[in-house]
Amino acid sequence: MKNPNTFLITGASQGLGLIIVKQLLSAGKKVIATTRNADTFDPETKAHANLEVISLDLTDENSVASMVKDLRSRYSNIDVLINNAGFGFAGAIEEAQQDEVAKVIELNVLATIRMTRLVLPLMREQKKGHIINLSSNAGLVSTAGFGIYNASKYAVEGFSEALLLEVTGLGIQVTLIEPGAFRTNFLASSLALSRISIADYDPTAGLFKTRLNANNGSQPGDPVKGAQAIIRVSEMENPPLRLLLGQDAYNRVTAKLKAVSLEIENLKQVTLSTDFN
Amino acid sequence: METQNQDLKKTITLFVKVSAKPASIEIARKALLDDVHGAWTEPGNYKMELYSALGQPENYYLFERWESQEALEAHFAQPYTAGAFALQDGHLKEDIQMNYLADLLPRSQDLKFDDSRKAYTTLIVPFEVKAGYGHEFAELFKAFVPSVRNEPGNVDFNFHRVDGQDDKFVLYERWLSQEFLDKHNQLQATSDFVAQVGPLLTAPVYDLVLFSKDISEY
Hints:
The complex is a heterodimer. In chain A, 49% of the residues lie in helices and 16% in strands. By secondary structure, chain A is α/β, with parallel strands linked by helices. In chain A, strand 6, helix 5 (147-167) and strand 7 (172-179) form a beta-alpha-beta unit. Chain B has one domain (6-214): Alpha-Beta Plaits (2-Layer Sandwich). Chain B has 8 helices and 8 strands. The longest helix of chain B is centred in the middle third of the chain and has 16 residues, at 134-149. Chain B is globular. At the A-B interface, helix 7 and helix 9 of A face helix 7 and helix 8 of B.
């Protein structure tokens, strides 16, 4: 969108979200940032005149609906919604307890769909808007030990693709951001580990947990550059549906696409043999 | 950075990856073990170790060092080596990957027969560096390698470039025990170094690490 002015961003108190907020404010944009507790938001940033920080439980339908209604009464437009809130979960599928799975799906999927649904009427009315959903390279490529998180991000990919098909022609744009490993505090503060561990999964999910922990602090992705790339996408007249961030993401996703394509072609005869003659 | 003397230039270091099909994992292990045990009887073999890696039950890795190209060619002529290469007839997922390595910071002790012949705690890291950053990456190791070699419990810390590839490197490190490796990993200098090299790589550092187990059956 050319010259978007007003941004609504969720999960903005830390990590990539906070960096995006700071960069938008530096660029003179108006930012509405939601977080679980506005009282703990970075005070220096919070003092900026163009920033409104709102305490919000994204898992509560009524709270989100009320907030959006309030915003509609006070802002002429919401140009860009950045669904950034989310958290990671590491553990084998069998190690994950149902309540742990539910929490991941609740925030990463249901809350993202909720905010999107509730902001869409406003964007349709405006006849413009850009919804940017923070997915992950884990939304396209699975890893042993990351399956629950994979499932949540694949869901974000799935509904966002459909959403684009639905809102094309209504002036609304949709973009999925798929970062690789970025040097934020994601691994330290936005990642849950399964409560239980099963020794049989030590070489797979256990190894993954070890690697995640060891990689903390040496991730190749620079979050400042990542935030800049996301903001650049918000300013494009014709933004892409997908944007990978980081060479690790590029390598993993392109390797997966090649493997999927090869497997599909190898089984083409079987695939085509199942239709009615 | 170049290897430092003529003798070392003659020495051949190889890092080999063998990816077995699921049904042939055991067949491949036996053929590779025969190859390793046979190599140990050859006068030109300085070392030959067979590794598996955590989370990769289908992959085997060989780390080997030979006195010269002639010694390696004599090895290739042996029946047990032919047995290993014969795995390519239907037992492997992909061709055997033979990486010839150049030790960028060699020690004189690596120029002779390695008589340790026991399983140490080993990490092997096949690094892939972003295009154009190979020189910068290698320079970072210049001070780090000698420093790690002085740490307690370190047996080997050898940093190699894959011949003919500016952006591929292999780190081979052996420690007396896991406790010494853990201490190395807990050092601030190690964290600082990993944070420095991280941005130059195509994947997070520890995603590249092979948590290896020496299965050579000494």
